[in-house]
Amino acid sequence: MKDYDDKTAFLGQCGRFQLINFLLLCASIVPNGIVVFSIVFVADVPSHHCLVPDVNLTQEWRNSTIPNKLSSCSRYRLSVVRNLSAQGLVPGRDVNLTDLEQEGCVDGWSYSKDIYQSTIVTEFDLVCNEQWKQPFTSTVFFLGVLCGSFFSGQISDRFGRKPVLFSAIAIQSVIIVAQIFSPSWTIFCILFFITGIGRISSYVSAFVLGTEILSGKVRVLFSSLGVCVSFAIGYMLLPLFAYFLRDWKSLLFSIFLPTLLYVPLWWVIPESPRWLVTQGRVAEAEAIMRKAARLNKVEAPLVIFEDYTTLVSPEEAMGVLKNAYVSTIHLVRDMFTFSTGYYGLSLNTSRLHADPYISSFMSAAIEIPAYVFIWLALRCLRRKLCLLFTLSVAAVSLFFIQLVPQSLSYLAVALEMLGKFAVTAGASAIYVVTAELYPTVLRNTATGTCSILSRIGGSTAPFLFKLSIYFNYLPYIILGTLAVGSIIALFFLPETFGKPLPQVIQQMPKARRKEEKPV
């Protein structure tokens, strides 16, 4: 059905039906912002040092057991220290400490509780030789997001947006509770992987469902501002929860509780009428439209949709990615850059301020003006121009960080926040472009598929800022370089501004090739 928007124009763009679904779908996004970045607090590394067991040592030797008071992975050999203490020798006066043999933290570690009562780092001792597990925990989550990007899209295009949305919310909620009882780091990671699948499945399904239910400028408002601000609100609530709940298990349980409020929404949020029409379920689509007409207090026509059966076979559906290869490959490049930059800068919030709660809130708060900016820009500017601006600002700000003197640390923070602003705005815009580029029959699959390779960027993001041990500004240089590469890829994307949402494959915008004129 190539004139879906015309057939449903009698509803208007901003009635009671649209308002209810706009608000409810935005509300379903809020927990995603909490879940994604909960790992910032759940897996943070508090100050720690080797545990000194309660043995017969003088106070001088107990205070001197840890070398230089700085080492978190070694101590002086306890048997030697105990022998010297028993002899009445004084460290530093009678004994040269630098000559003493050292050993690892064989009795475990003592963790500071100034900021956290516990994290999974303190629970499973993810320090020293096991410290690689701390950033890898985040990587496991993003690998789950990557996996979910592929499978949830196909399932949603096969069985509908609504069932996948609510199933994903349910799975995510149950698994979060199960994580609280994880007996080991391995079990925690397996469950965290499944949480990643549920997170991206619910996010993409809600995004696509809202994009298909709404129309015109309200659709742009939802996809570029409503969804993103809802995600940012969840992100901003996270440090508030974490501040009052310093134990990682309590924090996870607090994330689970609000999801119970979404159960009644099953009877309020409808299935996508666009999707129902493409599946030949015209009667169901018309029933939803007539209910919407009653809510909006308008008269529905006697026949809204003519009999319709899907025009796309499964083989043709899979073949659309081949037909749109040029668009997809360049779209993936841009999404990879935005994904790496967004999650890399967001997970690096602890470097912005000594207080991780303030750091997290700063990183979340900058997203609100970014989303408002890109919403206003998408209302009246071409999509490629919006992406070009955000990528350029991100590249310049991240490259310039290395030029800031250490005495002007606040300027470096400002540039990083400017980079976060640009990357956040661009990440929002690229999802709008993806939704506008692909037809209804494949929109969820295409959105997920295009996200798959970009999620590799999200998976590597936890390790990105670990590269600063080799060169302090290397992470920023890498992100700036990715932004420049994406600017080049951007020129090959088709323009979708001002065009109706494609319903079938034949309506997809054509990608620009070297021998073609710009669309």
Automatic annotation (TrEMBL):
The keyword Cytoplasm does not apply. Keywords: Membrane, Transmembrane, Transmembrane helix. It is a multi-pass membrane protein. InterPro entries: MFS_dom, MFS_sugar_transport-like, MFS_trans_sf, Sugar_transporter_CS. One of its GO terms (cellular component) is membrane. Residues 80-497 form the Major facilitator superfamily (MFS) profile domain. PROSITE patterns: MFS, SUGAR_TRANSPORT_1. It is found in: Membrane. It comes from the Eukaryota. SUPFAM superfamilies: MFS general substrate transporter. GO terms for molecular function: transmembrane transporter activity. The chain crosses the membrane at residues 20-43, 135-152, 221-245, 251-269, 357-378, 385-404, 410-433, 473-493. The keyword Membrane applies. This is Major facilitator superfamily (MFS) profile domain-containing protein. It comes from Mola mola (Ocean sunfish).
